[in-house]
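Ticket closed. Logging final result for Lysosome membrane protein 2.
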Amino acid sequence: MESRRRCCGCCSRRVLIISFAITGVFLLVAGLVLDVGGVFSNIIKNKVDQSVELKPGGLVYEEWVKTSLPVYMKYYVFDLKNHEEVMTGKAVPAVEQKGPYSYRELRSNEVLNWTSDRSIVTFMPNRTYVFDPETSCEGCDDRNDTFMSVNIPLMTLALWVRNNNYDKKHEFCFLGMLIEAELYKVKLFQRKTVYDILWGYKDPFLEFLVKATQGIHIPIIDKNITCPGQDGLTDFVQLQYNNTYYGISAVNSGQTDINKLEQFTMWRGESHLSWWSDKYANMINGTDGTQFSPGVDKQATLYAFSPEVCRSLFFVYESDQTVKDIKLYRFTAPEKLYLNGDTYKPNKGFCMPSGCLPTGLLNISRCQPLNPPVVLSPPHFYQSDKSLLEAVHGLNPEKSKHETYVDIEPITGIVMRAAKRIQINIAVEPVKMFAPTNGKFSKVFLPVMYASESFVITDGKAADFRHKVYLPITITEVIQYFLMGLGALFILVALLLLILTANKKKNDLELRVNEGDGHVRDDERQPLVTDGRRVFITSLTVFGLILLVSGTILTASHVFSKLIKDKVNEDVQLKPGSTVYKEWVNSSVPFYKKFYMFNLTNPEEVMNGNATPNVEQIGPYSYRELRSNKVLKWTDDDSIVTFMPNRTYIFDPETSCAGCHDKNDTFVNVNIPLLTLALWLRNTNYTKEQPKVCSAGIKATVDKFKLKLFRRKTVYDILWGYQDEFLKFLLKISKLTGCPAREGITTFIQLQYNNTFYGISSVNTGRTDISKLEQFTMWRNESHLSWWSDKYANMINGTDATQFAPDVDKENKFYVFSPGICRSVHFTYEKEVTLKDIKLYRVTISDEVFKSGDVYPPNRGFCITPGCLPTGLLNISLCQPMNPPVVTSPPHFYQSDKSLLQTVHGLKPEKSEHETFLEIEPITGIVMRGAQRVQINIALESVDVLPQTKGSFEKVFLPFMFASEVAEITDEKASDFREKFSKMNTAMKITKMFEYSLIVIGAFLLGVVLLLPCFDNDKKVQENGTKIEEKDEKHPLIDSSRKTFAHQST
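Final structure:
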């Protein structure tokens, strides 16, 4: 019995130890696998790779298309202080630096096309420079400030004359050139404004030389001659840096190979350069220096192609940097980049036939128009041959001021800070045959100016970057290290249990030995590690409680869920760089507006009262709707954005009915301008209030144009407008007779739906309150409507139906403001649907929205005197120019009063064809598919003020047309969405698992603590067994049997 009990206790301890050990090993291995195996890091890396690819919606694409970063081009000019002494050979050139003259550089890239696999994008770079006094030197003005330097066009001309033996081949022309140079008083060194040198000027002397190529009279020889010249002389007005023509270029998008991200594949339509002497030098290699492939390695050599220097450059790692709490790698141009070609053989290809220039210099004359003697170097001859500094005084090279560098965020490859610095020098030398350049000086590389192009990420973009990139990485690292730490702790607990068990066995053994000797005391029967056991149990309890409480708090407070929701909220806010902003500014989703016209087949019978109107639906006439919103201003806290909506419609035969054409197809329906005029005459008592000549004139005009209440017009005319000759003539009569006429009568040429003027509007950006995302705060410069009869009806409430606040609740009402029907409406949840593997909530317009005000009192405000219309109808005449009798309804009177279908034949309402619905992605609130359908009816009635509008029919709401505006997310955007938000869902599941695991492990540890008393019971049982044995040993029968057994054994 004793051994069985002891075995039972040992087995319980063994199970506990093994459980702790296995759990610890599992957690430790899981953490190590996630860390070393790179599970999370691979997920994040893939996410980063996809986000930096050049593709619409990517992290860098919008910035690449139109840079919002403040890029500055700062020019420092070198004023030559001793030009006369230099010309006569009496002194070395001495220069004084002036500046900076700073220009804000506006960068954009106009996308021209993509390859079929979207791996290459072809584009046209655009650069605009705007002078910025604030970042320029104090008091500096580029248009007024001047400096002395070399006359580059003259120096270029002199070299061209010499190199082409012009003085010998064209003696008379050369003679005329010298004479004109003297007359124009041209000199080798000239004073010009900074603006002229940077951005161009016209040189009178060069203009004369161009005329000479067309034929001039040389007075000294009295001859008319035509002189050969160099093309483009008058256009030589700028230095190389400003004369750079970027041209059509192409770069790799990274979509098929992220390692080639933004690397040039073409520049100016060519895949390689042509002016250098070997293949290596002519390579177009690298990016534009603003982005490199993600996962930057410190050991890597990074390449950038620079059009300004007509070659590719390379950079190597120098040091770690930190900018706005973002860790960066600084890469700089190494010294060997500028080494002389004779010293560093790879640079041999950059040498000219005449030989290699000293270290630090690059002759780019061949890649410039007219081949001016332009030589580039680092500013102040930094990292250049020392002899260059000896040849020009006034220079002081410093690493911090003159070095070119890029500070790269290594995870994404995005350049967060950079400075590209280039000095432009002119190879000045005397050309003796040409008097203006005939000096007594030695050839010198004279600095003219240097440019420093720099930028640094803004505080806002840095914060966005940290949130989007660093936060997920931090969370995954915490999870990994927590699992490893927890696993190690479990293993440690298992080891402690093992030690305690071993000590207990030892104590039991000592106890039994002592008992055999008969020297056992009560305290000796107690375990020797009672205090350690107590500490262990307490630690286990505390740790279990910490895990359980932590897991419960995290689960209840939704900490991780809130982090992910915050990320979603950031993405859907209306702010530059967010997921939805670009789509809101210029929508790429294919919206289609489809119009169905109702052709009245029995107009004469209706007029005579002999038949109920019978209509035949024709269409659809489909138009691609191009949507954009032009931002006008933001509020100070960016909570409201004011904008001008723009809508453009393009007829699309492919999605229209077969053979349909809006400009050719006609249909018969009500003559709306004539009916509107008749109602106006009646409602204003025109015939009684105005002279008879006025009403007689109107009637005569109607007769003259042979107008009828029903007429045939083309679909295009009705939708997009036409000039009505009747209305134009009527206005002329009004002016001649002095009779009043309705303002704007000549321009009433369209139905309400197409006459909607969106006007300046404002919506909430969601920046300060995400629940108000994209809700209208103003429309047509008004915060509420004015044509309805109560405050509720006049509310401008809701979004434009393309976006709602994220984290959609099925129980909510979804409000939409619709300019098309001059009111707000609300939708309610109907069911869940799936579109392209994305789960959506379908919401539809609530039945109560179109109920008659007599049936549903909240709708009383939409009633217009003399009463409320039947359910389904909305009189919008008051919100239209000239108040035409336009009444809207759902198509085919769907969800409307049944009596309406009895007054018009040819209608067949169907839910699938005529219902308005929106399908919303619940996490983001983005509408992925939708259809807004509105029917326009004319309140047709007999108006006896004009014979043409007087009929024998009852008032009827005659369907005129209905419009169905439909949109659906494309396959490509659906794929992008799934990819992006599936990772968020994965992260959400991982965090849930993490939270629940804390609770489970905590509960498990507390359970272990509760089970530990069982081991104490085992111990007590064993002790009790020992006491029984002691008593048995004192019993004479038992003692005798034991002695007998011992004797027999002996």
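The chain has 27 helices and 32 strands. No further action required.
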